[in-house]
Amino acid sequence: MRTKRGLIVLVSSLLVLAISIPCLIRLDDRDNASPPGSMKFLGMTDEERKQIFEDQVKQMQFYPSAAEANKVLPFELRLPKSELCGELKGIYVRKGTRPTELVVYAFYNDIPNGITIDIQPLTNKPDFQAIIKQNQEEYETGIMKADKVPVPVTVNNLDGRGGEPGFNIVNGHKYPRPGFVSWWDNGLLYAIRGTRGENGTSLDALLKIANSMYSA
Fold this sequence. Notes:
Structural class: alpha+beta
Order of helices and strands: HHHHEHHEEEHEEEEEEH
Radius of gyration: 16 Å
Distance between the termini: 40 Å
Mean pLDDT: 81
Low-confidence stretches: 1-37
């Protein structure tokens, strides 16, 4: 059985790397990915990112709407108001042999460089406060630095973790980073990523998108 520290490390890896490496990377690869490697993806041009996206979605199922995706999902897909995040370009579902290998991706506007929502099963609620503390320690002592560090947030009165867009810095090189918000609700881990760089989607805007997923 994993220790509490082990769980924090695992969930932290999922949350940190979900906003810095290719959005469709396999979960078991996320645990072993290194921050410098993830920065390579952040430093790519929009066209290079699109090519990676096109290669990876070939093994996924595409659905044009939440209604179609809900026919095959074991949970009801919750999406935000379109006026806050733009046009839904499609929903991709990756399945695996284990429940935790199921991941749902919803893309808005410019795939994969616009607003992106990831949803995946996670049995236990993450300790977001512990994850944020660990992130801050890693930024202080590790090879990767950041102009802004993650902070506690709430989505529909649920604890979570969020960050402003900006830059991560590795060996003096700046890599544009998207803003993000992540939270857990009833066995599902949600993450929303915005556009990259200092002019990317703000944390405030991402929180409005996230909270709209709970409005009637």
